[in-house]
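To whoever is on call:

I kicked off a structure prediction for a single chain this morning and the downstream step that reads the tokens threw a length-mismatch warning. I double-checked the sequence; it's 903 residues and nothing unusual in it as far as I can see. Pasting both halves so you can look.
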Amino acid sequence: MKILTKLFVSVILITGYTIGQDIPNKDMWVTDGSVRCIAVDGDFTYIGGNFSHVGPNTGSGAKLTTTSATPNMNFPKISGGSIFTAVPDGSGGWYIGGNFTKVGTFDRNRIAHINSDGTVNTTWNPNASNIVNTIAVSGSDIYVGGNFGGTLIGGQIRSGIAKLNNTNGDADPTWNPGANNSVNTIVISGSDIYVGGSFTTIGGQTRNRLAKLNAATGAVDTTWNPNANFPVNTIAVSGSDIYVGGSFTIINGSTTRNRLAKLNNTDGIADAIWDPNPNSVVNTIAISGSDIYVGGGFSGTIGGQNRFGIAKLNNTNGSADPIWNANTFNSVNTIAISGSDIYVGGPFVTIGGQTRNRIAKLNNTNGNADSNWNPNANGQVSTIAISGSDIYVGGDFTIIGMQPRNNIAKLNNTNGITDSNWNPNANGQVSTIAINGSDIYVGGAFGIIGGQARIRIAKLNNTNGTADANWNPNSSDQVLTIAFSGSDIYAGGSFTTIGGQTRNRIAKLNNTNGNADATWNPNANNLVNSIAINGSDIYAGGSFTTIGGLTRNRLAKLNNTDGSADATWDPDANALVNTIAISGSDIYVGGVFTTLGGQTQNRVAKLNNTNGNADGTWNPGNVNGQVNTIAFGGGDIYIGGSFAGTIIGGQLRNFIAKLNNTNGDADPNWNPQPGQQVLTIAVSGLDVYAGGLFTEMRGFNQPGFALFTDRIIPVELTLFTAERLHNSIRLDWQTATELNNYGFDIERKSNVKGQSPGDWAKIGFVQGNGNSTAPRAYSFIDKSINKGVYVYRLKQIDNDGQFEYSNTIEVDFGIPTEFELSQNYPNPFNPSTKISWQSPVGSHQTLKIYDVLGNEVATLVDEFRNAGRYEVTFDASQLASGIYFYKLQAGNFVENKKMILIK
């Protein structure tokens, strides 16, 4: 392939493959509670359970705008924990910190950089060992604070605070103030860094919870020592005034300042006049001109006014604005200001006179909440950052932009969002949904649904969600299952009356008026959990021991005309049956049983529809928890339940599995790994829907509901370029779409000595984004190079192990044009580190190691070397911890660098 003048080469690779079914569709809306039933009808899916809202699955971070509360779903989902801080990077992207472990499909421990297009910065990975509480940006320097006490961040050991490079995330090796406890807040003002937290020493000085540091050196200002007696949570700077908030009650060692103070930037002395005196903790401060906005857990008097959770104070005397009153009866965690708008976040559910779940936009004049801007988060908001018209929000939520839907909702299968016109608004749990034409039958524990009083069972219109005015069976207790056959509706549960008749736990209802059939009365003596219909046979499962006039332990086949139990079909389950699914002549059942149909069958079994015997060849094994749901799709059986860490069908599976209908073997490639119980599964064509108590799958946030698909969508590689840097080669590539993309192996071959031409070698791996319909950008820097011609290719790998190769790029990495000795890596190190250098001419070269007294402790190189780039490994296992120096002499070139050995 021809190399362009600047060594940029672009190739295009388009490959098509089948998505692994165990990857949830990221566009399908999710719930803020459990999903217990699912029914699919063409382009729509109906879900029921114990939720109050549905919305887009954002994870714990989302990008909004100042005019739109709809999240940008091209931004990566944050998983594995919360976001505590977010700041703009100055280029349209964001730095985020917290206790999360994943950003999109990339492992990112507690800190990450998201580019302006929503891609994860693949070269910036400080990998913090503990919580990041705060981030501040100054040019190319990123200051971070948190709970990382004596642990790694950016490749260096740092306590509480670190300064990172904005290019690669490495910690500055010389900037190390070393706080002895957590740093909660960092604010930059010129060359000064103000920090607050729980520390009592920092930079080798006693500083109680507040300090001013030098931005360049990290040294503590010796004259600025406010000396707070309890933690500082927030700092804001306005000119020469430093505003601080937290839980302290004393400042300057003796001055009473309850949780809020204004300090001088020169001597740290508290302003004698400014004393708003809140009665509880202050979490956040934001400044707009002469107005000081504060948020926290206070309730009562602040600045002479009664204010709850948030207040607007005067910067001169600390008095609260008498008109501005956004009262919330919960705390405020964060405040950000854009023009005349005040953005606030926290755990509140009302603020500024409006219902606002955890985030709101307030007017700066009166504190009223904006009537149109309502992102509606399902968990508390901890941070809000603004860049132009873009807003990044972080917290412990999983949904931003949720819509109220009490216990039942209708979702569009095309775009994943809720139907705006369909809102039956059930006031209690919905346990079952069945679809018959344009009618949606639902059962549960509700008393009102579809605008009507409907006790535990109702028929809803599929267009507007209203309850049928004439259909009202009025069940005396919960309805757990509904099935239909023609004009007959079968219901099961814990009721004893329904449809105007005494009916114990099972009944047949008329689809027109809801009356119970006068002659069909199987009379179960205990709970009916599941009903399935096959022709004229009605299969029922539950906890009953008599039904249809016969002893039938937990499972029975009933006649659809008279309700009598089949005399020859008696599987005799020894414990609860939760679910029944039918495929042809096979009856699949799940529950708590361990014997069924004359066989040992642990919680799942396949029965013959004629004699009720268990299929002896279909036995997935010893399922260690109950099976709640079974669904049939093609030749596969999907089961969900409470089983965890168990071998099912020869595979380790948690809460859900896909089994072969012939031998019961689990599909080795299908393993969604939900974190908790699966309560319901539905299959429609190539789509598999699951609902339950889970909040994650495969370590990614996935609350309540998930859709898996088998549709074919290509991974499209649209750009693959190489750039020769000073002493390395940078590869960049982009994808237009991705599905099932595990990642990319970077492979290289060259004519470098010791490596035969044509031998491809893997030199690195970059994690893929899994599923994405938006463009994604990747990069990789090859530092292990010398003089020669290099050829690169990408090996794109699916989650199921399938792979495709890209076209190749060739780069001629010629002789260096100048001397350079690079910083050793890693540094600090234990016990070995790598040292690299380059020379533009051939010469006798020496590379030696010295201790701090100038004693030579090792010689790594002492020989003639040609012009080129070199790297050696220094093993210091025999040396003591301390500071060492390495010195390169190549001809007339001499350079020294420092390195740190920590054991």
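Update from on-call: the warning came from a stale cache, not from the record. Cleared it. Sanity check on the structure: DSSP finds no helices and 83 strands in the chain.
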